[in-house]
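Schema walk-through. Below, the input block comes first and the output block second. Nothing else is stored per chain. Lengths vary across the set, and this one has 291 residues.
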Amino acid sequence: MEKFKGIFPALVTPYDENGEMNEKSLRKIVQLNIDRGVTGFYINGSTAETFVLNMEERKRLIDIVADEVKGRSTLIYHVGNISTGDAIELAKYGEKVGVDAISAIPPFYYKFSFEEIKEYYQDILNSVNLPMIVYNFPANSGVQFSLDHFKELLSDDRIIGIKHTSMNLYDLERLQYETGKFLLNGHDEVFLGGLNMGAIGAVGSTYNLMADKFVKIYQLFQEGSLEEAFAIQREANNVIDAFIKVGVNQGIKYGLEKMGIECNGCRKPFKGLSADEKVLLDRVLVENHVI
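--- output ---
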C-alpha cells in the first residue's frame, strides 16, 4: 500500500474563458503539485465539480492527467454516479488509461438500501480488474454507513481502503482498527488529527494550491515534530476558514488564478465571488504564505 501513502490533491477542473475544460491549466496544476512532492492525484472527485461535468469530460480529465503524470504519481480515479452503468463505463475507461485504483461515492438521492449500495460496488468491481477505494462522504451523499456495513464492504479484498471525508475521526480510528484496511483522511482542516487517528495519507481539495503545507505536515508527523506540524495546520485552517465563507471550490480556483493559473471560476449553479470576498481571500492567502 506504499503507493497510497501521502498527499493526494483532489484536482479541480479549470475552465477557459468559454467555460470549456482548460487543458493547459490542468497540466500546470498537476506539474505544480508533482514539484511540491505529492504522492498522487484524486481525479473526478467533488472538487472537480464532477456532477456538473458530462461523461466525455470526466474521461478527458483522466486522459490529460495520466498523460501529464506519465507514471510518476499514483492515480485514483473517481467513477461514482447514481447510475451503475455510468460508473462501470468510467471504471472501464480508467482501467484502459492505466489508473492505480478507482473510487466511488455510494449512489445517492434515492435513499438506496445497504444491499443495493453493496451490489453497486460489486457490479463495478466485477467489470474491471482494479482495486476500489470507497468514498465515504455522508454530509454530501446522505449515506451513513455503520461500522458493520463498512466491515461487510471491506471483507471483499478488492476494496482496499476508504476515503473518509467526515469530521468523525473516532470512526476513522475504529474503521482502521477493526478492518485493517487503509484510511485516507478527507477533510483538510483535520488532516493532522486524521494522521494521529490512523490515516496513512489524505485526499484534499485545498492541496491544489497549498500541497506544500500538507506535505510538510506529513513529514513532520512522521518525524514526531507535532508542535511544528500543528503550526502549519493552523495556517492552512486560516485559509480553509476563508474558503468556507466564500465557497470552497471558488476560493481554491481564485487562489490558483492569483498564482497565474487560469481557472475562470466554477460552473453554475456555483456562484461567482464578490469584490469583498476577493479582498478577504487576497489578505488571507498572503498572510498565510500561500501566494
